[in-house]
Each structure stands twice: as C-alpha cells, then as structure tokens.
Amino acid sequence: MNPELKRQLLEMVEEDQRVRTELAATGELFQGYALKMAEVHRRHAHTLEAMIEQYGRLGRSLVGDHGANAAWLILQHAIGYPELQRRCLPILREAVERGEAEPEHAAYLEDRIRFFERRPQRYGTHFDWDENGQMSPYLLEDPERVDEYRQAVGLSPLAERIEEARDNTEGEPKPSDLKRRENEMRGDGRNQWAGCSFRQPLTTYRENTRRKIMRSFIQAVAVLVVLSCPLAFGQTSGSKAESSLVLEQGVAPHAGLDEIYRRFTDGYKKLDAAAVVNLYSETAAYLAPEDYIQIGRQKVSGIFTGFFDSVKRRNGRLEISFRILQRQIDTNLAYDVGIYTLTSFNDKGDSSKDSGKFVVVARRENGNVWRFQVDGYSGLPK
Q1: What is this structure's pTM?
Q2: Cα(231)–Cα(358) distance, rounded to whole angstroms?
Q3: C-alpha to C-alpha distance for 308 and 285, rounded to whole angstroms
Q4: 240 and 371 fall within a common domain
Q5: What's the start-to-end Cα distance of the chain, in Å?
Q6: In CATH, what number is assigned to the domain containing residue 233?
Q7: Tens digit of pLDDT for each residue in 144-154?
Q8: Domain with 320 in it
Q9: Which of 23, 80, 209, 288 has the fewest CB atoms found within 10 Å of its own CB?
Q10: Is 92 contained in some domain?
Q11: Whether residue 284 is found in the same domain as residue 143
C-alpha cells in the first residue's frame, strides 16, 4: 500500500467534485465543457499519467479501494486525452481479471471511448440530455442484449439506471443548445478523437510512453514545432537524413532562426527546460492539440518542465529533427512551416518515432535576438 499516492488521488477527486459543484451552482456546467472544469481534468490527467508511468497499475493492492476508484474517475474524466484512455483500457481490464479493479469501471471507460469515437456504446453507461430535455443513454450497440452485458459487469438493468439518472437531474437546468454542447464535449474534430490512431501513452504503457509525451506535451505533454517536441535542430542546411535540421530546396538559411533551433536541440537533448523556455518571448502563444491556447513564457515553462520531468523519471531521452518546407522572413518577423520527427528512447535504448507538422512564428527582439512568438503543431494522418 502507498498511502501518499492514495492521498494524492483522493485529493484530485475532491477537487474535481468541488469544481463541478461550483459550476453546477452557476449553471456553467450545463452549457458546455466549462473552461475551469477542462483545466482541472487536464492537470489531473497529466498527474495520473505520471503515476502510471512510475507505478504501473493503480489497483487495490497499491492504493486501496478508494484510491483505485479515484484513479478510475480521473481517467474517466480525461476526455481531452484519447490515447491515454484507449491505452489504459486493456490495463484496466487486466486489473479487473486480477481483482485489482471493479468490472464496471472497465465498462464505463469502454463506453466513454466509444462515445467520443462516435460509435454505439455497449453497456449504456453514457448519458446526456436528449432532444426532449430528458436524461437518456447514448446510442446502444445492441439494445436487446444491453442488460445482459450490464449484468455481466455488475450493473443494474438499464431501465432502472434511466429512472435513477432522470431523478438525479430533476430540477437541473437543461442545455440551451444541445448540438453545441455535444460538439464542445466531443471536441467537434478539434482534438485527436477525430482520428483512429493517436499519440498518448499507455497499453504497453512503458514502451509507448513516448507517444503520450507527444500528446501531452501540452500533455500537455508539448511543443509547437518545437512544441510537440521541442526542437532538436542542428544547424544544417540542405543535408540528408542524419541532420537535425534540413532545409528543403528554396528555403534559405537564417542565422537567427537556425540558432534558435540549434539551442532548442541542445536543450532538448539535455532535457533542460529552462534553456528551451528562454527561447520563447515573454508573451509567446503556445498552441498544442487538445488544449487551450497558452499565453506567456511562464505557461510554456510549465509545459516543458512537466514534459522533461516525465522523461527523466523513466530514464529516457529524446531527439528531434525538423524538415523546413517553407520559410518567410521580414525585418522583425519570420515563420517556418515543416515536419518534425521525434525519436524517443527508453532506459534500455530501444527507440520509437512519431512525426507531425508544425508552424512557428519568430520575432526579433532587442539586440538582434530572435525568439518564438507563436508555436503550434499537430499530428500527421496515419
């Protein structure tokens, strides 16, 4: 048993429920995915991910019944991190088989994933307001057998659950715009649920931790060009695959920009968050998938510090290379568009790669120093 780990999990759930209650009191909870609630879920998802990375399965033997329940609830609410939920599902199923978790928890998580992937749910655990203003289950895979599925994992008949859900929400304000609410909850294509393959950690969680790193950079888990995986640029022009920075034909070298990349590369290899963060302006805007726009060097610092710390905890290392496809330079502003490749190494030296697209805008400051002003990235289609 790990009492400290259990305490952290319970405190996160307490905060989750407290914020939910506050938002329900103001009505914000019922009008879409409230920013304050999303921020709580984002922070908790990152913390949970780090815990799993360090301890593995957060089951009864490690954190007790209440701790295991808390870990599941935090995971259930991590709707901005699809790959985290996807990769945790087989781990949760294994925990159920070992008596380390409740069967219904795996059922709830599977239905949650199905909902966000726009697939019919199996167990009928996901509810929301329907067009008649009543709490109803989302589309079912097999209405004729749903109670059979529910009974197998210890859930009550669906009709009883529907009655209970409607009683519990009696008097709560209904969403004024159901379509908008659904789009906000699902991301409406703005997050990685829109695809089938994502970059977040967890099925063979340790080997795949790197993928999570990308998604969460952010995680969130982070970097915009440099973001999703802070740069690993060496200062090379027009050279081949071994180079950390390749400029496509027609893209001119630029001393200021290429120096940023060189220093990013060095900071990234050394996992030196302070060195990387110093390459952003004080008012930099950081745009990562599945997250809100982060403004300011301080927020960028939190992203890189968390990211690098997670790599250090698993004794890993990272390398990144970039291919610049387009570059435009004016007197005090410049931008690059390109492709990044992130290589992640585990403690045994095994490696895996992810690639994505990025755009960065750099600004020249006093003393002819260039820094990133805007940083944004996303994955490539699989």
Answers
A1: 0.50
A2: 11
A3: 20
A4: yes
A5: 41
A6: 3.10.450.50
A7: 999 999 999 99
A8: 214-379
A9: 23
A10: yes
A11: no
